[in-house]
Amino acid sequence: MSYNNLTPEEERIIVRKGTERPFSGEYDNFYKEGTYVCRRCNQPLFSSKSKFDAGCGWPAFDDSFPNAIKRLPDPDGVRMEIECAKCGAHLGHEFIGEGLTAKNTRECVNSLSIRFIPARGRDKEEDDK
């Protein structure tokens, strides 16, 4: 399988399962219409409709596309790690039961693990507003 080239920092997050600093990622406070895909393999992961402000410092989603992410027990024994189901890229962690949305789920994702694709039919000027 062929993957996108990654910067050293993207590789630290995606391949070595790192975490970016809270409130530092480009998608933390970002709310445009479109789709978030895996930065490593371009697999669609989340719709912008599932994104919400959890106040945690990372992009948060309460739903993913069917079969887009894989959940694995984190080595810390407490959290659930989430990965891209297609390429195994580290995305972040899943938290259940916080009561932040009706779905009661928070997919806490590193901005460097994802890339945003604007919804079709919208021009760039409109997206920049």
TrEMBL record:
InterPro entries on file: Met_Sox_Rdtase_MsrB, Met_Sox_Rdtase_MsrB_dom, Mss4-like_sf
GO terms assigned for molecular function: metal ion binding; peptide-methionine (R)-S-oxide reductase activity
Keywords per UniProt: Metal-binding, Oxidoreductase, Zinc
Presence of keyword Metal-binding: yes
Cofactor(s) it depends on: Zn(2+)
EC number(s) reported in the record: 1.8.4.12
Enzyme category, top tier: oxidoreductase
GO biological process entries: protein repair; response to oxidative stress
Family matches, as Gene3D superfamilies: Peptide methionine sulfoxide reductase
Claim: Transcription is one of the keywords in the record: no
NCBIfam families with a match to the protein in the record: PRK05508.1
Protein name, entry field: Peptide methionine sulfoxide reductase
